[in-house]
Amino acid sequence: MSDSSSPLVLVVDDEENIRFLVETGLGLAGFDTVGASDGRQALAAVAEHRPQLIVLDAMMPELDGFDVLRRLRDGGDKTPVIFLTARDSTEDRVKGLTEGADDYMVKPFAVAELVARVELRLKQSGVARQQTLLTCADLEMDTDAHRVTRAGDTVELSPTEYKLLEVLISNAGRVLTRTQLLDHVWEYDFDGDSSIVDTYISYLRKKVDSVDPKLIHTIRGVGFCLRHDA
Amino acid sequence: MSDSSSPLVLVVDDEENIRFLVETGLGLAGFDTVGASDGRQALAAVAEHRPQLIVLDAMMPELDGFDVLRRLRDGGDKTPVIFLTARDSTEDRVKGLTEGADDYMVKPFAVAELVARVELRLKQSGVARQQTLLTCADLEMDTDAHRVTRAGDTVELSPTEYKLLEVLISNAGRVLTRTQLLDHVWEYDFDGDSSIVDTYISYLRKKVDSVDPKLIHTIRGVGFCLRHDA
DNA sequence: GGGGATTCTCAGGAAACTCACAGACAGGAT
DNA sequence: ATCCTGTCTGTGAGTTTCCTGAGAATCCCC
Description:
Chain A is of the alpha/beta class and 230 residues long.
């Protein structure tokens, strides 16, 4: 999972599939990632790779997230940390924040949301001048203002519609399968069926793709793709 | 936390999350910031970056805020300093002020208030002609006169309403989450529910947004945004 | 100490959103 | 042309989020 000059994010979680989802999601968003499956590996990875940010699961056997964070801070390391915590317990929050974590997400979360937080946090610490305006033809997404316009007209989108469009536009020109979209836009433990993606693609078409040129394309038998055909 | 030509503020606090909150708050207000987590780093940062102002925590291990200030003044450095002191102890107050601090804030404070003091102090020292009139459409905030008008009519706001509107208008066009607003407008140790933000948004709507065009927008699932839609 | 302004909690109703389902529709193969 | 498979979209039930009014607690000025 490496590119060349994008910010590097360390992802620490003992659950293989969650780590995979998160790393894939960050990869699609243009980040380099390194993974670690326990606390000890995490500390070693920080020392070796000097990541710009750490996504850290709170619950891990042996050295848990809190221990890792404490050791980092005690050693003078100030790398921003986003915690992944099991449920919305106020206790976790206080504990995490007072120990110097900068943000936290409650499991299960939508990967697209975690990616947004990572981007925000990196922007705040000035590491990555994040691109705030995503475009495809006359479709524009301003992620700062959380605003979408098509041919200059503002379009109102629901949260899910917005996240879906964001994933599509950040991967403009690439075909994304229903499963990929489901994995990134919906909470990862979503157990409904992937036809919900069709429903939301339909909503998006009505709201942002009712004028020419059509930007949302169906790739029969594969998935969907946002692109501007010349 | 750097941009290019805004005034630079050095933030010194050994508590990571407080430093982060303060730096973020100053960043949102358009300042560049540099952080330091102890007295020695602070002195080094002053020498290296020559900040326009220093936000200095009084209580730190080893070299505390008073020591830092004394060393600076003894060395002829006149950079304005705003002290952060643990509680409203008369002793701290006297000690800080007589030794050359220009202002002080008692922890826990509201970040928006600290930002206001920083702006005031910089304006006094003529370093930065800080913008004193904030506007959005026909809504105006004169931070000098502490006065708000909508369509020419003066509006009376309570302190909290004022701070909230100030944060919104200085970030006009950008979406702010309930958490961000809570972190900047309310004292940072506020442990109530973030629905208080909704209540105050409602108050503001009644007082300053009862006429068209509507400027305060709800971004469902995200937060609020002040902007003038054409 | 009294009274008004302010802060904050809470809860009901309104509005928006999510998601399943099912029938209509389209593309490709035979 | 016809069938089959995959895709599109309208409907509606259930859920979540938001808005606002009412009231308790607190602060502050007189």
